[in-house]
Amino acid sequence: MNGLLQAAKSRARGYRTNQNF
To answer: Could you tell me what percent of the chain has a pLDDT over 90?
Structure first.
């Protein structure tokens, strides 16, 4: 599940990318 990792990284940077879910 790389989606969770990607979301975590995006959130850490301050991005709202919930399209991966």
So the answer is: 0
The terminus-to-terminus CA distance of the chain in angstroms comes to: 10
* Residue partners of 3: CB distance under 8 A and separation at least 6: 20, 21
Tell me if the pTM is above 0.90: no
Q: DSSP code of 14? A: T
Tokens 């989606």 — which residue?
3
pLDDT digits (tens, 9 = 90+) for 1-21: 677 777 777 766 655 555 554
